[in-house]
Amino acid sequence: MTTLSGKRILLVVGGGIAAYKCLDLVRRLRERGALVTGVMTKAAAEFVTPLSLGALTGTKVYGELFDRDDEQDVGHIRLARGADLVILAPASATRMGRMAAGIGDDLAGAVLLATRAPVLLAPAMNPAMWTHPATRRSLETLRGDGIRFVGPNRGEMAESGEAGEGRMAEPLEIVAAVERILGSQDGPLAGRHVVVTSGPTHEPIDPVRYIANRSSGRQGHAIAQSLARLGARVTLVSGPVSIPDPVGVETVRVETAREMLRAVEAALPADAAVFVAAVADWRVASDAAHKIKKTGDGPPALALVENPDILRTIGTGPRRPALVVGFAAETRDLLENAKAKLASKGADLIVANDVSGDVMGGSVNTVRLVSSEGVEEWPTSSKEAVADRLALDIARRLGAPLPA
Ligand code: CTP
Q: Which of 196, 314, 341 to mutate to test the pocket of ligand 1 (most atoms within 8 A of CB)?
């Protein structure tokens, strides 16, 4: 397993309990042939010692910015420029905010500002901090700057026992993300970026109720995974699902159609976009601030308004990827509807599937590919097999070199 052979990775260890996972991360990266150099923030040294980090990296661990010896030759620039990839783990809400604002007042901050290598962040923080609007703003800004993310995961927090999203990704997940970024010189889709939407959306009615649909996300997630296996950098924008994130794919979790659209727009530019999500067509005009109670006057009247059509917005918009793929979930007049969607939504390709059976949430799928070239029927197969075939088709349409 030398997937990272000779790759120079600069690991910036941030402050936080999850810092201990960095020791295992170093071991896993080195097992794969990477050369790892460690930088520690002041706060990180409260959780792991420079000695233990240095023992695992096998090299000097860098600490504060104004370490005289190393600053003689502008050490932070040298460190930043000598890396093929910079990892910041754990990334706290504060550190993300500082990065988003371009603050480089310590060695870690200066390195993160000075590097031109890809930067991968593994956030770890309390769930309330992760969902705070300020952290959301930092996240969006950093994504816009091209910073990649892995995690955080859902689970119990080490310090408070609180459950929610905020747990740092596991070392092997971080390694998979690194392999994805650095290994993307391989595979027919190497160097290409593809955005995929998946899962349902949830549209709130009141704090406890929502409108949803039966989508499991299995087909969309499988497509994201297949594209990543072909070497693409994949951003998966997923509605609420209970299946695991694909490995080596950057997954952005959203709830509503409007959030999904914003996340897709933030992920652009892309070479291709595949819209698999079963987006709710409507949302409640104004979701109630409090739980709607029975009043004795009969059921409440819910006024619905139309959600943005994400596929159409992107397919006919100014930042349209070269290849746009949509899905058409129909229970009747499949081909007529699919053909109409090609034109009206600005798609190059519509994957039409009949959802009158138990396709939604099920494990197999029967699809037809509708494009200006005509209709191609695919045999019923597993969602993974459909995904593999579609990923190859996308690679071909993007002009990628395919193995014979
Ligand atoms: N889609 C989208 N945003 C929406 C609705 C749909 O991006 N608000 C995308 C889906 O991801 C899919 C395609 O559009 O790729 C078709 O979705 P489908 O539900 O089959 O079509 P609708 O546009 O809802 O059309 P209809 O009302 O005819 O069902």
A: 341
Which CATH class name applies to 8-183?
Answer: alpha beta
pLDDT for the residue 403: 61
193-397 fold:
Rossmann fold (3.40.50)
Structural domain boundaries in the chain: 8-183, 193-397
User: For this structure, is 213 an active site residue?
Assistant: yes
Quick: pLDDT tens for 327-347: 998 878 888 888 888 999 999
**What is the four-CA torsion angle of 61, 66, 69, 74, rounded to 10 degrees?**
90
DSSP 213: -
DSSP tag of 200? B
Residue of 213, 307, 353, 365 with catalytic role: 213
Render pLDDT for 89-130 as a digit per residue (tens, 0 to 9). 999 999 999 999 999 989 999 999 998 888 999 999 999 999
For ligand 1, whether the C-beta of 9 sits within 6 Å is no
How close is the Cα of 282 to the center of ligand 1, in Å? Answer: 11
Contact indicator for 333, 349 with CB cutoff of 8 Å: no
**Choice from 197, 259, 307, 311 to test ligand 1 binding pocket (greatest atom count within 8 A of CB):** 311
- The model's pTM: 0.62
Q: Which of 296, 208, 212, 197 is nearest to 253 (CA)?
A: 197
